[in-house]
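Run log, item B.
One chain of 64 residues. Sequence copied directly from the ordering sheet:
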Amino acid sequence: MGIKEQVGKWTEVLRKRSNMNNTIKELHMLSDAELSDIGIGRGDIENIARGIIDFHRNVRDSNK
């Protein structure tokens, strides 16, 4: 793997982590009632954020 590919890989990792952290932050700002309205428990936030990021990455990659 060349330098360009390695930089691209690490850029993707950092972007994913940033997006996941932003999603987690946004979901933690919701009240328990609001989370319940959308079917999320407070303890599920991190797993859901990871799933959302993975889903969007898969959609993006399938459109290339």
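Observations after the first pass:
- The CA atoms of residues 55 and 61 lie 10 Å apart.
- The radius of gyration is 15 Å.
Flagged for discussion on Thursday.
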